[in-house]
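We examine the record.

___
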Amino acid sequence: MLLPPYAAHLVLAIVLLMVMMLYLSNPQATLARVDTGSGHVQANSGLHLNLTGQVSTAALSLTTSQQMHVLIYVATPSKALKQSLRTLFRSLCQHHAPQDIHLHLACDPLGCDLCIQDGLTEVFNTTLHPLEAMAAAGKDMLGTVLPFFDINPESHYAKDLFVLSLVLHKLLPLQSHLLLLDADLKAAGPLWPLWQQLTEFTVDQSFGLSFEQQPVYRHVFAAHRQQHPNTTLGSPPASGFPGFNSGVLLIHLDHLRHNTDYAALFTASTMHELATAYHFQGHLGDQDFYTLLYVLHPELFAILPCGYNRQLCTWWQKHPVYTDVFEAYHHCGDSVLVWHANCNSQFPI
């Protein structure tokens, strides 16, 4: 008997709804189960639906794994997002063998459906993580942070998915390392040099990011800089700390789980004290958090080369206050491994 064309969409929507209800009914109990066997619904030989928020314990150590674990968020895909995802996936396929990457897609029903229908799950071993369920499981921790990093509740970044990276060590308790990629990226070569940066992390380092390549945080720290003329916060990389861009983000989750200083940050009073001290009100989600966290705990961070996240946006160059200093932030002399077409910029041909 032939099924109507919409049947696959309907089945996927029903399964994702059941998964979300399972999380919401008892997220802590759900997260305590191991994500193997019945913890996955296998849709084809390489696609799994994660029912528990965990991933298999197999091949997670950097010393034994021959796979990069790459996480991408896919939510309510617009036409532009669809095109960005296709560009990113084409570049990943161009530079990697299927066995190189275990792909983790944190998606809402529309996003998961797009990934399946577009064949984005057919090349690499892929696990789908229901985004609503992840957000619900991390709600308590994220609730203390979100008010300080969303200046406009209606803004693009005023969504849980833009701060979920802060709590992935809780949401994926069996995962040890992750590479998070924004959708508006294009790999210029194999990502192994980026992934291998994790092997060089010190015992304290949990995050790897490149600097922000525009004077964004010169602007955000403006009040603090006015009160403290000798500060290097918001200054270009040659002389100070320009802040981070989280379009490419490495996380050593095991290190993070054992860091008591990090865990202590997630209270409303602590976040309020920190944000007030630096007159900080962010608007770009998790990268605001990482930028402010670096001020307090620089030992948590490994600085990635600028070519590992070569940002193409030049919006701030047109701002009259920052035109003269723009190039000091935007210059990058490194070979490019990942292009980042942020703020709807165009990739080089």
Remarks:
- The two ends are 48 Å apart (CA to CA).
- Confidence is low (pLDDT under 50) at residues 21-45, 52-61, 153-158.
- Residues 163 and 286 are 5 Å apart (CA to CA).
